[in-house]
Amino acid sequence: MVTGELKNKIDSLWDIFAAGGLTNPLDVIEQMTYLMFIHDLDESDNLRAREAAMLGLPYESIFAKEVQIGERTVDGSQLKWSVFHDFPAAKMYSTVQEWVFPFIKNLHGDKESAYSKYMGDAIFKLPTPLLLDKVVTAMDGIYEQMAALKAADTRGDVYEYLLSKISTAGLNGQFRTPRHIIRMMVELMEPKADDVVCEICTTSLIRVAAA
Fold it and tell me: What pLDDT was estimated at residue 169?
């Protein structure tokens, strides 16, 4: 459950979107999801680089080379959240709009992949550089608060809280499986590395049983 300072920071970010002209809750959550992905892509890449260095293994960052975006070639490092979040608002806006979003949309060349299915239509909807600058700063604060809490599933709680802001969310139950239920399922199933897992929605099981 999201409470205290973290809840205040998320509510403040929501207000920033509204004041900046993005008032549709679905649009807000969509844009936040894309931005969270961009942030986490950088964070994950940095973590893998550190782990590879500690183990003495080779690792090539997805941001290491020049990236072809349309007819332009750009320095991959400019696409990292940890780099562009320090840019002036106008430069950050053009970088995210013209480079970062096209980059994540085409990160995997396989157009039939699940990734392409969900990210291929990513559209950058923040209307002004000032709004993006405020959103990025607020999200940095949220990530710092999440790191300070060191809870097992803070990120899931944050996303659940965001979804609760949609008026229909309360009618649809939970959007994710609580962490303690996941741990119980893993302990019961004892999956091995080569097992194939097929997840079935509980609602579907109830419907099948009823039929």
Answer: 42
